[in-house]
Amino acid sequence: MSRRFLKKVVCFLVILLLFMVINNTNLFMKQSAKEPSLLAHRGLAQTFEISNVKNDTCTAEMIHKPEHPFLENTILSMEAAFSKGADLVEFDIKPTKDGQFAVFHDWTLDCRTNVQGTPLDYTMDELKMVDIGYGYTYDNGKTFPFRGKGIGLMPSLDEVLSYFPEKSFLLHIKSNEAKEGEQLARVLATLPEAQLSLLSVYGGDEPIAALKAKLPSLRVMSKETMKSCLIPYILVGWTGYVPDACENTQLHLPEKIAPFLWGWSGKFISRMEKSNTRVIVVAGDGGFSEGFDSANDLERLPANYNGWIWTNRIDTIAPLIQNNKIE
């Protein structure tokens, strides 16, 4: 191998490296005046120490001393979240005995209500009689501040969509049952196109694939859709190319992973938004719905970040964003 040839190879590699750096740096980007958008997880809800949460943890039994009267996944909590500044509210759905969807988080009713079993064991009318505030306590069971106050507060999906026809929501299918995706598709297919465009759905691979097959225009997300977008992007994204699998979807990016993506944050977000894909950054490694919930959390975001932020404390974070606390 000649010295001249080696020199050409080195030159090529240097030029390629410079291209990769310049094409993905944010240093020369025009700063956007757009504020970050806020996703309120479960609306305005009671809080708890998320570092203590495990798969079988009953979070209602470990809440902080209440600072407000709202319970997660209720119309009142969603309304409060929007009034505080949420751009999007996330909520969980579970199928009921009579073929509807109840808005409720837990796999079973045992933890935070006065009945046992799952939502699938009850009709929606029966779930309306359940006290969803029954199990909440902040002092190891000495007091139950919401007991008796949650009767009638568990909404159906139909109620939420009827009450907020012009609001944006992220629906969470908790299971990996394809039939739940098909059931949800039947519900959403009845909505006006304008309202449907305000919704997105995430969940297990099977229900999300079934839902997308029925409603191709709907923005959805699952582990499979994330992988099909991000793996090829990691391979070729340095060129600025966005794979087709990244179009019209949603990405929930843990803050520990996001910085390793080409063009993070400004160029990456711009590329995805041009493909009609929403980029939401979640705290930590993405486990147990960690959010950016304090001023200290916001300091970890990139300078001039203007994507979406996942928060469990919309009441705390919205005022900070409005006062330009991300610099």
From TrEMBL:
Lineage: Bacteria, Bacillati, Bacillota, Bacilli, Bacillales
Domain GP-PDE: start-end pairs: 36-321
Signal sequence annotation: none
Protein name as catalogued: Glycerophosphodiester phosphodiesterase
InterPro entries with a match to the protein in the record: GP_PDE_dom, PLC-like_Pdiesterase_TIM-brl
Transmembrane feature ranges: none
One Pfam short name: GDPD
